[in-house]
């Protein structure tokens, strides 16, 4: 019940999807399985969310990091309240709902600014970490510099040709090699799961 | 009015995130926690209104638990997922996990074979002797694939192949670095543009 | 002031000053972007184009300009546009605002020239369903109008009736479109991706699984050049250029110091 049940389930489902790929009448059932997948996936995310909120409530009880946990919980329950209010008003995800106001003026700026910080870190890394120590580093650096020059006004007229060549020949070749490697790995892993050699769900 | 307030809030949050560049500080930390809380609430609201409500609640109302799509099953699987939160009965969550992993494995095999492996291999079967670029492309795909794929020690002929493979990979990484710089700078342009134009009206 | 802070200040100035001065610069379209432009030029008038809005706020500065430029071109050519979102429901509100803005400029009508199918979870499931019958998965649009009440969907059933799919992706959704729509149903697919993802799409261009590709703000600026309507992306290009040059200077300066040390 604890081990064999899950294993049988994963094999049956996996084989079903495989067979449905070739046998048309099974396609309908495949759609049903995919729908179930979506629903189960939603519950999995809910588990994560409950976990997050629980751990910060625990922080409050223990008196650890209280101000920060309070802010997090304020953000969570505040947004939830706005969302529930917006639901009763109509479509909460309508572009002009109060929930979307929070989205546009709180969540979106936070998220995009967070990501834009990386521009600074990349510049600092370029200054400190990019040393030509060997052939590999030289190639990496040359490709990076050429591509950076080949994709901006003013210098691209000189460098666009070689940039396009880098992208379409050596870059393409390596990307494809890596992607084929990943694909083979994914298929191998999927087969191991279907044969029960790998059982990640037991974790 | 709501827009003006929104822009000021967004500007404050943007600057608070940027303050991290000066050094880690309480304002940044507070805003970071706010970000996590707000995004968690958004996930919650959107799982409910796009996955659980339309697929499960509406579905059950229309077709019943055992009608079309047998919605009883994903409901049970989803609820079993919640046992993750109870250590003693946590093993029940292996069933929904096994379901999801089995389905993922089936999808991976069919999708990767048809969409990635076959077309990518097919596109690589060029005559390598017709042009320098074709030669380089085939050489690059094979060597970088072999570099990643064989865990054998890289000596002798394998050593040479791995060497060539790593050169291709380094050029690709360099190109990717260049493109990553491009991406992060674009995000920064977006944020600075917001501050200068929407907030300060200087642009 | 530490070296790190000097670097940060210079980067900030390199972005802010060109923006404030309003410098303009011309860009040169690259082959994947030209291919994208030509693919849209080649579509018969009033055919249906499906656009996946699969990017969120973290990549909006990169993705919105290319989205706007593509819409501009599609509407100019009198093509019909249906948007949908498969990555996250939160991607859509911004997508709708941009769509309505551009549609208004062209005097386009909802349901006739453009429509919003909304967000549907279950990525692969949705993509595969669209190969059979669009009404199975989208019986109605995002506002709840039955699809049959919208004139633009008359006679539209599956990929056979969709001239082109454009996925604007900041993540893996474009891979699912390749695997489950292009490979399985032979759909004509064009992608707009973040610059970070640009290099990894080249194999699919050469294998002709993609008919074109726009990467990042630069891709958008190139598209703006092709449709001769410089906008947001073109305005950002001088700042982009100055930061790139600055970072190259940093690399050279760092190595110069390293070189001197090594010789000693």
Structural overview:
The complex is a heterotrimer of chains A (203), B (203) and C (264). By secondary structure, chain A is mainly alpha-helical. Chain A contains 6 helices and no strands. Chain A has helices spanning 4-22, 27-62, 66-89, 98-128, 135-150, 156-194. Chain A is extended, with a radius of gyration of 25 Å. In chain B, helix 3 packs across helix 4 (94-124) and helix 5 crosses helix 6 (156-199). Chain C is α/β, with parallel strands linked by helices. Chain C has 2 domains: 1-24 and 236-264, no CATH class; 26-229, Rossmann fold. Chain C contains 10 helices and 6 strands, in the order ααβαβαβααβαβαβαα. In chain C, strand 5 (189-193), helix 8 and strand 6 form a beta-alpha-beta unit. At the A-B interface, helix 1, helix 2, helix 3, helix 4 and helix 5 of A face helix 1, helix 2, helix 3, helix 4 and helix 5 of B.
- How do the SSEs of chain B run, as a string of H and E? HHHHHH
Report the oligomer. heterotrimer
The CATH homologous superfamily of the largest domain in chain C is termed MTH777-like
Kindly, what is the distance between the CA atoms of the first and last residues of chain B, rounded to a whole number of angstroms? 21 Å
Q: How much of the sequence of chain C is in beta strands?
A: 5-15%
Strand-residue proportion of chain B? under 5%
Distance between the termini of chain C: 28 Å
Helix residue percentage of chain B: over 70%
Largest interface: A-B, 119 and 115 residues
Mean pLDDT of chain C: 94
Q: Helical stretch count of chain C? A: 10
CATH structural fold name of the largest domain in chain C: Rossmann fold
CATH domain class of the largest domain in chain C:
Alpha Beta
Radius of gyration of chain B: 26 Å
Briefly note the structural class of the backbone of chain B. Answer: mainly alpha
Blueprint of the fold:
The complex is a heterotrimer of chains A (203), B (203) and C (264).
Chain A: H1 4-22, H2 27-62, H3 66-89, H4 98-128, H5 135-150, H6 156-194
Chain B: H1 2-18, H2 26-63, H3 72-81, H4 94-124, H5 132-149, H6 156-199
Chain C: H1 3-21, H2 31-41, E1 48-54, H3 60-76, E2 80-85, H4 92-106, E3 114-119, H5 123-129, H6 134-137, E4 164-169, H7 173-185, E5 189-193, H8 198-206, E6 212-215, H9 216-226, H10 232-263
Parallel strand pairs in C: 1-2, 1-4, 2-3, 4-5, 5-6
Helix pairs in contact in C: 1-10, 3-4, 3-9, 5-7, 9-10
């Amino acid at each position: 019940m604890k081990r064999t049940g899950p294993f049988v389930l994963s094999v049956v489902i996996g084989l079903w999807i495989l067979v449905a790929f070739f046998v048309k009448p099974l396609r309908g059932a495949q759609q049903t399985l995919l729908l179930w997948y979506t629903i189960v996936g939603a519950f999995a995310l809910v588990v994560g969310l409950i976990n997050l909120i629980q751990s910060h409530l625990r922080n409050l009880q223990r008196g650890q990091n209280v101000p920060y946990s309070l802010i997090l919980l304020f953000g969570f329950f505040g947004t939830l309240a706005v969302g529930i209010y917006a639901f009763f008003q109509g479509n909460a995800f309508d572009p002009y709902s109060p929930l979307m106001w929070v989205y546009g003026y709180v969540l979106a700026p936070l998220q995009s600014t967070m990501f834009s910080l990386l521009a600074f870190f990349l510049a600092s890394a370029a200054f400190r970490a990019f040393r030509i120590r060997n052939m590999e580093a030289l190639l990496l650096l040359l490709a990076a510099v050429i591509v950076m020059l080949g994709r901006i006004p003013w210098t691209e007229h000189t460098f666009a040709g070689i940039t396009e060549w880098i992208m379409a020949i050596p870059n393409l070749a390596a990307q494809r090699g890596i992607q084929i490697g990943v694909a083979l790995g994914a298929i191998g892993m999927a087969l191991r799961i279907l044969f029960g050699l790998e059982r990640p769900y037991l974790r | 009015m709501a827009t003006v307030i929104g822009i000021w809030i967004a500007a404050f949050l943007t600057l608070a995130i940027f303050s991290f560049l000066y050094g880690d500080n309480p304002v940044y930390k507070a805003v970071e926690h706010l970000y996590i809380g707000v995004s968690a609430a958004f996930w919650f609201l959107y799982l409910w209104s796009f996955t659980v409500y339309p697929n499960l609640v509406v579905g059950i109302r229309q077709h019943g638990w055992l009608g079309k799509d047998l919605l009883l099953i994903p409901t049970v699987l989803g609820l079993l997922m919640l046992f993750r939160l109870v250590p003693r009965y946590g093993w029940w969550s292996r069933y929904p996990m096994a379901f999801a992993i089995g389905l993922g494995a089936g999808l991976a095999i069919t999708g990767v074979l048809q969409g990635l492996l076959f077309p990518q291999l097919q596109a690589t079967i060029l005559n390598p002797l017709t042009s320098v670029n074709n030669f380089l492309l085939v050489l690059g795909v094979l060597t970088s694939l072999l570099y990643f794929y064989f865990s054998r020690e890289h000596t002798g002929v394998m050593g040479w192949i791995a060497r060539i493979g790593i050169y291709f990979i380094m050029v690709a990484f360099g190109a990717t670095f260049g493109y990553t710089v491009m991406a992060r700078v674009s995000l920064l342009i977006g944020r600075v543009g917001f501050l200068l134009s929407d907030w300060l009206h200087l642009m | 002031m530490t070296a790190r802070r000097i670097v940060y200040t210079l980067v900030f100035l390199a972005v802010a000053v060109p923006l404030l001065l309003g410098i303009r610069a011309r860009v040169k379209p690259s082959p994947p972007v030209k291919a994208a432009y030509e693919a849209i030029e080649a579509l018969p008038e009033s055919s249906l184009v499906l656009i996946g809005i699969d990017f969120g706020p973290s990549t909006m500065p990169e993705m919105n300009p290319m989205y706007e430029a593509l819409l501009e071109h599609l509407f100019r050519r009198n093509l019909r546009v249906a948007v949908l979102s498969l990555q996250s429901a939160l991607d859509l509100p911004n997508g709708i605002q941009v769509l309505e803005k551009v549609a208004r400029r062209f005097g386009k009508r909802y349901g006739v020239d453009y429509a919003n199918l909304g967000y549907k979870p279950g990525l692969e499931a949705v993509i595969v369903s669209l190969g059979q019958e669009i009404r199975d998965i989208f019986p109605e649009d995002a506002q709840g109008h039955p699809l049959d009440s919208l004139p633009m969907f008359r006679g539209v059933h599956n990929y056979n009736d969709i001239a082109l799919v454009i996925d604007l992706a900041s993540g893996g959704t474009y891979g699912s479109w390749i695997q489950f729509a292009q490979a399985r149903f032979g759909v004509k697919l064009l992608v707009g991706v973040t610059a970070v993802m640009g290099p990894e799409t080249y194999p699919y261009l050469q294998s002709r699984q993609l008919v074109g590709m726009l990467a990042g703000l630069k891709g958008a600026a190139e598209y703006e050049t092709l449709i001769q309507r410089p906008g947001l992306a073109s305005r950002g290009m001088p700042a982009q250029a100055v930061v790139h040059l600055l970072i190259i200077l940093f690399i050279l300066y760092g190595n110069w110091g390293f070189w001197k040390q090594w010789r000693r």
